[in-house]
Amino acid sequence: MDTVIGTSRVRPDAAAKVRGETVYVADLPVHDALTAVLVRSPHRFARIRRLDTRRAAQLPGVVAIAHRDTVPDTPLDFGIKDQHLFPREYVRYAGEPVVAIAAETLEQARAAAAAVEIDYEPLPCVDNVEQALAPDAPLVHPGWETYEHGVSRVLRGNICGQNRISRGDVDAALARAHVTVTSNFRFSAGIPGYIEPRAALARKEADGGLTVFCGSQSPYGNRDDLAAFFGLAPERVRFINQFVGGAFGGKILMAAEWYATALALQCDRPVRLVFSRHEDGLNVFPRHGGIATFTSGAAADGTLLAMRASFVFDTGAYIGYGAGTGLIATMLASAPYRIANVDLQATLVYTNKQVAGPVRAPGGPQATWAKELHIDEIARRLDMDPLEMRLKNAWEEGDVSATGQTLRSVSVKEALRRAADAIGWQKTRAPGHGRGIACSWWFSSCSRSEARVEIRSDGSVHLHSGNPEVGTGSAAAALPIVVADRLGIDPSAVTLTLADTATKTYDSGVGGSGSTFSAGLAALQAAEAVRARLIERAEDLLEVRREDIDLHRGKASVRGAPDHALSFAEIAAGSGGSISGSGTAPEIGDPEFDAESVESHDFASWLAPSFVASAAAVRVDAQTGRVEVQRIVTAQDVGHAVNPTGIIGQIEGGAVQRLGFGLTEELRFGEQGIENPGFQDYLMPTALDAPAIESIIIERPSGEVPLGMKGVGEPPVTTPAAAIGNAIRDAIGTVPYTTPMTPERVWRAACDASAQGPSEYSSRST
Predict the structure, then answer these.
(1) Which three-class secondary structure state does DSSP give residue 596?
(2) Residue 762, pLDDT score
(3) 149 is a domain residue
(4) Are 532 and 666 within one domain?
(5) Is 212 helix (H, G, I), strand (E, B) or coil?
(6) Same domain, 616 and 728
(7) Cβ atoms of 4 and 490 closer than 8 Å
(8) Could you tell me the CA-to-CA distances from 222 to 193, 228, 240, 510 in Å, in that order?
(9) pLDDT band at residue 758 using 50, 70 and 90 as cut-offs
């Protein structure tokens, strides 16, 4: 049997997307659908003194209105029960939905929205993380003491989470260090950057059930949450995922789905809610902004002796995904380096801003950018090559992480060397030109995923998976490859049904670099079951031993006698009409770690971790601060490459995304909330801004999982911005310790360096 795993394949959905034939939620031709709009708070923080929708309800075309009094008084639960679907007493950010309206036309819905009467009492706001931590700061959540929360969640005033990793004696190690460096950083909030705004269409069925058409990263999880909130049995709720126009973590949590459902349950008409780009920006789940401080000590030979790191993340008005971001940041803060003494802490705080979410690699770009700029600063203080500094301290096979996890299939040094070689690390730099390098690690998420493979009477092969295709190709391209490999067919022969909860193939969703990892293992298991049944039945029909049977091109043939064969259709017909098999991603426990090294940390060891390094070449004009990124190289260990073309796409896309984090992207907040919610003045890179990008695939299979796979989607976004920052410093001797590293900030950093005066977010050493 010829293997197809590791061969590059064209995405089966590519042609339809290029031709504009792909149907998204906003395109669904649903008869008699109502149009919904939201009434949003104009205030960042205010008490709702009066809410009156009576006049709006009487306007022509208005069919349903939903608000705090029409939905269950049940808080949403993301670890802390701090949020209601519609605010009950307080609005906590500008743009927070207060009322939802469904009408016959968009114009009628907007007219009704304008007629809603809400009397607000504006309150003092919390603008940033420093203010949130001040002793006299206003409370974003008056009455926080009454909130229910998980046992591992810290809740105190404006602090809504803390976690810590500690090992050794940091103070003693710093005291004996040859050099000690302290660096202060600020990183901006940013949007996920998907092209398709949030949308949902909800329809109450005649039998009392509910159907929701959406573009979600987690249709099964969303279904369960929505059903529980509205008091429906999960099996009575069907989520049908349409094609998703990008997600990047921004479509894990529900938005439009909640409000469309709240309206649809009031009437016997479908309700469609489609956010405009501006509206999507107001309800986006942005990447966490915040600050970080690193203090590290090193010996004269460059050995890292100790590191103390502290993050404060702005999680916005509600907890959202704040807890996960803090946990991941502390796991990245000292990695992937051998440092015997560490104290790594993350604090999450409430502010009066949009709820932050799990944007692709939550906490990864922020923590890696700060840590890797800090490592370069130490190397500079020691007059040591930054690459050599990293190679001296990088993990090797059998080393332990900060939490005591023993590390296997470690490839960080190979990634560093290959990225450095490809960028021309040792070549002489022209004036104003620089090269930078950065490295990191990431986890592979093996969560619940189910699949079913069926060979029908006509011989066609069908794969049912609960894993949604969100634009990456991980489901549409990679899963058919896994199935085809086991059945000896071409991947194009596999018909795919994804993310329809009616198929009852549960999947935890896209996130944590786990699509191909989890869903792929489920598909592999299902395909193995079908393969075994095919061969078993062919054994009887062909009257040969099973070990003499090959599966190839839709046939079962006798090895050495290829004409003695039966097609899949003939085998299925002789077996009652079809052959099927089911699979579930195996339950693989997390590796062991030292429980005494962590506090309030429930993500302290990582399964099948991947390793990644990026190198960048830049040209900087110190007189203007303009940075031209000429080239980015990323070397990534993927374990076992299932679809190399898809992997390269992930790496290249990750490089361009974090070009934005590093140089251009910043959500700006003012007195009226977000000042740049649309693409007009939110500077997200496009293909025109992309530099030359080289992707290097490293295959160091993990022994912890079948196929040796490692997560792919998130590692390549962790390192490019840090490599660019270090290249800027290599070019002009300094770099701003604030993202984005805009021309103005680069210019000011150069001015500060020439004047020997450090800026607020900079570095100092002893």
Answers:
(1) helix
(2) 62
(3) no
(4) no
(5) strand
(6) yes
(7) yes
(8) 21, 10, 11, 12
(9) very low
Q: How many CB atoms lie within 10 A of CB 500?
A: 17
pLDDT of residue 472: 81
The answer to whether residues 33 and 263 touch, using CB atoms and an 8 Å cutoff, is: no
Which residue, chain included where needed, has tokens 């190709």? 473
The one-character DSSP state at 760 is: S
Answer yes or no: is 160 within a domain.
Answer: no
The whole-angstrom separation of Cα 402 and Cα 370 is 18
441 and 452 co-located in one domain: no
Q: Which residues, in sequence order, are CB contacts of 383 under 8 Å at separation 6+?
A: none
**Is residue 158 assigned to a domain?**
no
Phi–psi pair at 377, nearest 5 degrees: -65, -40
| Helix or strand (DSSP H, E) at 540 | helix 520-542
Averaged pLDDT of the chain: 93
DSSP letter assigned to residue 642: S
Residue 107: its H or E element = helix 106-115
640-669, pLDDT tens digit by residue?
A: 999 999 999 999 999 999 999 999 999 999
- Show the 3-state SS of 11-68: CCCHHHHHHCCCCCHHHCCCCCCEEEEEEECCCCCEEEEEEECHHHHCCCCEEEEECC
Tell me if 249 sits within 8 A of 362, measured CB to CB: yes
**Checking phi first, is residue 290 left (phi over 0); if not, alpha (psi -120 to 50) or beta?**
left
What percent of the chain clears pLDDT 70, i.e. is strictly above it?
98
Q: How many helices (H) and strands (E) does the chain have?
A: 18, 30
Q: Which two structure tokens, joined as six digits, stand for 609?
A: 């971790």
C-alpha to C-alpha distance for 664 and 59, rounded to whole angstroms:
45
Among the listed residues 623, 461, 489, the one whose alpha carbon sits nearest the alpha carbon of residue 556: 489
CATH of the domain at 498: 3.30.365.10
Final residue in a domain of this structure, among 532, 553, 584: 584
**Domain with 99 in it:** 32-123+196-245+251-282
- CA gap 439, 417 in Å, rounded: 11
Question: pTM (2 decimals)?
Answer: 0.95
Q: Is the pLDDT of residue 388 over 90?
A: yes
- Cα Rg for the chain, rounded, in angstroms? 27
b/e 323-343 (16+ beta carbons within 10 angstroms → b): bbbbbbbbbbbbbbbbbbbbb
Helix (H, G, I), strand (E, B), or coil: what is residue 275? coil
Take residue 750 and report the two structure tokens written for it: 């150069």
Residues 580-614: tens digit of each pLDDT:
999 998 778 789 999 999 998 888 899 999 999 99
DSSP structural state of residue 286: P
Cβ atoms of 9 and 645 closer than 8 Å: yes
HSE (side-chain half, CA atoms, 13 Å) at 745: 21
Residue entry with tokens 């990695």: 335
Same domain flag for 722 and 745: yes
Distance set, CA 170 to CA 162, 173, 675 (Å): 20, 5, 42
pLDDT of 765 reads: 66
Report phi then psi at 433, rounded to 5.
Answer: -105, 145
d(CA 408, CA 702): 7
Note whether 422 and 615 are within 8 A (CB): yes
User: Measured between alpha carbons, how far is 205 from 297 in angstroms, rounded to an integer?
Assistant: 64
Average pLDDT over residues 221-243: 96
**DSSP H or E segment with residue 439:** strand 433-442
Among 674, 605, 600, which Cα is nearest to 80's? 600
What total of structural domains would you count in the chain? 3
Residue type, position 500, single letter: D
CA atoms within 13 A on the CB side of 659: 29
CA 415 distance to own-chain centroid: 22
Amino acid, single-letter form, for residue 318: Y
